[in-house]
Automatic annotation (TrEMBL), chain A:
Source lineage: Archaea, Methanobacteriati, Methanobacteriota, Stenosarchaea group, Methanomicrobia
EC number: 1.12.98.1
Molecular function in Gene Ontology: coenzyme F420 hydrogenase activity; flavin adenine dinucleotide binding; iron-sulfur cluster binding; nickel cation binding; oxidoreductase activity, acting on CH or CH2 groups, with an iron-sulfur protein as acceptor
Keywords annotated in UniProt: Iron, Iron-sulfur, Metal-binding, Oxidoreductase
Enzyme superclass (EC): oxidoreductase
GN (gene name): frhB
Protein's name according to its UniProt entry: Coenzyme F420 hydrogenase subunit beta
UniProt domain Coenzyme F420 hydrogenase/dehydrogenase beta subunit C-terminal: residue ranges: 95-246
Domain Coenzyme F420 hydrogenase/dehydrogenase beta subunit N-terminal: start-end pairs: 9-86
PANTHER family associated with the record: 7-HYDROXYMETHYL CHLOROPHYLL A REDUCTASE, CHLOROPLASTIC, FORMATE DEHYDROGENASE SUBUNIT BETA
Necessary cofactors: FAD
Length: 287, 257
C-alpha cells in the first residue's frame, strides 16, 4: 500500500497560465477545482485560504474561481480543512462538496463517510476529494521559527516556500532565496505526523504533489472511479498538459522511495510507542 | 425477504432525536424495513407493549435510576436482544441527561440518569447527538450482514463493527476532554479539524491547529472523539471505502445512479 490503489499516474500541469502564475507546482488542485466548479461537478470546495497572520491558512469554502485562486500555493502549516465539512453542506448549502487536504485529512474524509456518527448529510455529498502528497507538517509557530529564526526572513516578506531536494527554501518578495537543510527543520515537525502511514494521499479521488515530476509540473494519481471520471473529462476538455510519467525525471521511482521511507520510519515509531514507558505504551490509533 | 433480522427501538430517557435520525433515512428506512429488518418493538411506531425477543435492540436514551420501569426494561432488553446498540450520546455516555438534578415537574425525585452501559453490557456504541442517519443505516446493514450474510460479508461486517464494539468496551464516559487525554496527550493529533465539525453544540474551535474545547458547552455526546481519525482508524475497512460505499448504496437500492 505504499502508493495506494490507483488507476493511472501521469505528469501534468494546468493549461491556464493565470492559475500557474501562483500555484505551488503544476496548479493541479486549483485547475481541477476550477474546472469542476464550472461544470457543476462541485458547488464549492474547501481550500486553505489566506488567514489573518502571514502564511497562516484559514479553511474557507470557495464558491468562486477568484476564491480558489486566492488559496493557491502551499502553506507548510496546519489548515484544519475538515473543520468546514458540515458547514459546507449546512450553512453554505452545497450538495456537491470539493475538499483538498493532506493524506491524513483524506483519511478523515473517508472515515466520515463510512462512520458518519457526527456527519449527518456528509457521506453522499463529497463530490471531489483532492489529496496532496505530504511528508510532514509544521505547527504555525514551528514554521515561524524555521522561516524567521533559521532562514532569517520575516513571515510577511516571504513570497513562496518550498521543500525539495533536501532543502527548505523561502523566496522573498525582493527576489532573494534563503535555504536551510531540511534536517534543521525536523525538530519543528508536528508530533502527530510521526505516526502517519501515508505519503501520497491513498484515499483521495485524485492525489498530487511535486515529487517525481520536473519543476513546475506535478505527479497526479487518479484513484477512484469518481476521480477518473472527473479527471478524464478535464483532460478531454483541454484543461491540462500532460506527459507520460515514464518519460519524466526523476519519475515514479523517487515517489516510491520517499513513500517507502516515510512509511517504514513511521511504522517503526508506531511500534516504538508501544513500549514508550516502563512496560507501558502509548496508544496505537490503527488497532 | 425470508431472512430478515428483527430490530427494536427501545426508548429510555431521550428526546426521540435518535429515532428521528433513523427515520431521516427517508426511503432508505422503508428499504431497511422491507428487505432487511422487521421492526418488532418501537413505542412511537409500533403497538407492542412488552419488550420481545429480537436480534438487534437500538436503545435510545439514558436510564433513570428512580424509574423502576426503565431499570426493568433495560435489563429485559439485555436478556432478550442478541445485540444491544447504545444509539446516541445519551445511551452511550449520558449526554445532556448527565446534567439532570431532579426537581422537574411532575417527578421531582427523578434525578439520576446513567448511560445504559452502567447497568448492562453493551455490544455496540453509536455516539453523537443525534447520530447521523447514515451511520445508523450503515450499522443496520452491517448487522444484517453479520447475522445473515455470506462468510465474506460476515467478515467485513465484523471488521466494520469492531471499532464501535471497542468504543462500547472503552467505557460510559466521553466528552471533549477525551481529545486532550487520548489524542493530544498521546501525541496523535494532526490538526484536521474533524472534531470541530463533529460537535453538535459548537463547543470546539481550532486554535493554531489544535482543538480548543469550551467545557461549559460540552454536553458529553462523545462525537468528537469517536469521529477523530486518530481515535480509531481501521485500515482494513476504511481503505476499501469505495467498494463499501457502493455495496451499501447497492443494498439501499441506490446503485448505479
Ligand atoms: C504540509 C505539506 C507538505 C507537503 N509535502 C509534500 C511532499 O513531501 N512532496 C510533494 O510532492 N508534495 C508535497 N506537498 C504538496 C505540494 O506542496 C502542493 O500542495 C501540491 O503539489 C499541489 O500543488 P498544485 O500546484 O497542484 O496546487 P495549487 O493549485 O497551488 O493549490 C494548492 C492547494 O492546496 C491547498 N493547501 C495549501 N496548503 C495547505 C495545507 N497546509 N493543508 C491543506 N491544504 C492546503 C490550497 O488551499 C490549494 O487549494 C505538501 C503540501 C503540504 C500542505
Ligand atoms: S505527515 Fe501525515 S499526519 Fe502529518 S500533515 Fe502530512 S499527512 Fe497529515
Ligand atoms: S479530529 Fe482528532 S486529529 Fe483531527 S484535529 Fe481533532 S483531535 Fe486532532
Ligand atoms: S465537545 Fe462537542 S462533540 Fe465533543 S463530546 Fe462535547 S458536545 Fe460532544
Amino acid at each position: 500500500m505504499v502508493l495506494g490503489n490507483y488507476k493511472s499516474v501521469i505528469s501534468a500541469r494546468a493549461a491556464d497560465a493565470e492559475i500557474l502564475k501562483r500555484s505551488q507546482d503544476g496548479g493541479i488542485v486549483t485547475q481541477l477545482f476550477a474546472y469542476a466548479l464550472e461544470e457543476g461537478i462541485i458547488d464549492g470546495a474547501i481550500v486553505a485560504g489566506p488567514g489573518e497572520e502571514p502564511w497562516k491558512p484559514e479553511p474557507v469554502v470557495a464558491t468562486t474561481r477568484a476564491e480558489l485562486l486566492a488559496a493557491r500555493g502551499t502553506r507548510y502549516t496546519i489548515s484544519p480543512n475538515m473543520m468546514l465539512i458540515k458547514e459546507a453542506t449546512r450553512s453554505y448549502g452545497l450538495d456537491k462538496v470539493g475538499i483538498v487536504g493532506t493524506p491524513c485529512q483524506m483519511q478523515a474524509v473517508r472515515k466520515a463517510q463510512l462512520y458518519p456518527m457526527a456527519m449527518r448529510k456528509v457521506p453522499d455529498k463529497i463530490a471531489l476529494a483532492i489529496g496532496i502528497f505530504c511528508m510532514e507538517n509544521f505547527p504555525y509557530q514551528g514554521l515561524e521559527a524555521i522561516v524567521e529564526d533559521h532562514c532569517n526572513v520575516k513571515m510577511e516578506s516571504a513570497d513562496k516556500m518550498d521543500i525539495g531536494k533536501g532543502k527548505f527554501s523561502v523566496y522573498t518578495e525582493r527576489g532573494a532565496v534563503s535555504q536551510i537543510p531540511l534536517k534543521a527543520t525536523h525538530k519543528y515537525e508536528q508530533p502527530g505526523c510521526h505516526v502517519c502511514l501515508d505519503y501520497v494521499a491513498n484515499l483521495a479521488d485524485v492525489s498530487t504533489g511535486s515529487v517525481g515530476s520536473p519543476d513546475g509540473w506535478s505527479t497526479v494519481f487518479v484513484r477512484t472511479k469518481n476521480g477518473e471520471n472527473v479527471w478524464s473529462k478535464a483532460i478531454d476538455a483541454g484543461y491540462f498538459e500532460t506527459k507520460d510519467i515514464a518519460s519524466v525525471k526523476p519519475g515514479l521511482d523517487l515517489v516510491t522511495k520517499l513513500a517507502t521511507d516515510k512509511i517504514d520510519k513511521n511504522k517503526k515509531f508506531v511500534e516504538a510507542r508501544a513500549t514508550f514507558g516502563v512496560n507501558k505504551g502509548l496508544r496505537n490509533p490503527y488497532i | 425477504m425470508a431472512n430478515k433480522i428483527t430490530v427494536g427501538h427501545v426508548h429510555m430517557s431521550g428526546c426521540t432525536g435518535c429515532l428521528v435520525s433513523l427515520a431521516d433515512n427517508y426511503e432508505g428506512l422503508f428499504k431497511i424495513f422491507d428487505d432487511y429488518a422487521d421492526l418488532v418493538y418501537c413505542l412511537t411506531l409500533a403497538d407492542v407493549r412488552h419488550i420481545p425477543e429480537m436480534d438487534v435492540a437500538l436503545v435510545e436514551g439514558s436510564v433513570c435510576l428512580q424509574d423502576e420501569t426503565s431499570v426493568r426494561e433495560i435489563k429485559e432488553t439485555r436478556e432478550r436482544a442478541k445485540i444491544v446498540v447504545a444509539l446516541g450520546g445519551c445511551a452511550a455516555y449520558g449526554n445532556i441527561t448527565r446534567f439532570c438534578r431532579g426537581g422537574q415537574w411532575n417527578q421531582p425525585q427523578h434525578e439520576s440518569y446513567v448511560p445504559i452501559g452502567d447497568l448492562i453490557d453493551v455490544d455496540i456504541v453509536i455516539p453523537s447527538c443525534p447520530p447521523g442517519a447514515e451511520s445508523i443505516r450503515n450499522v443496520c446493514v452491517m448487522a444484517y450482514l453479520l447475522l445473515q450474510g455470506t462468510d465474506e460479508q460476515k467478515e467485513l461486517a465484523a471488521a466494520y463493527l469492531k471499532p464501535l464494539m471497542d468504543l462500547a468496551k472503552r467505557g460510559t464516559e466521553a466528552c471533549g476532554c477525551d481529545l486532550m487525554y487520548d489524542v493530544i496527550n498521546q501525541g496523535l493529533c494532526m490538526g484536521c479539524g474533524t472534531c470541530a465539525a463533529s460537535c453538535p453544540v459548537r463547543a470546539i474551535t481550532m486554535e493554531y491547529g489544535r482543538p480548543a474545547i469550551d467545557r461549559d458547552m460540552c454536553i458529553k455526546c462523545g462525537a468528537c472523539y469517536a469521529q477523530c481519525p486518530r481515535s480509531f482508524f481501521n485500515f482494513d475497512v476504511i481503505n476499501q471505502f469505495e467498494g463499501i460505499m457502493e455495496a451499501i448504496d447497492g443494498a439501499m437500492g441506490k446503485g448505479g445512479e
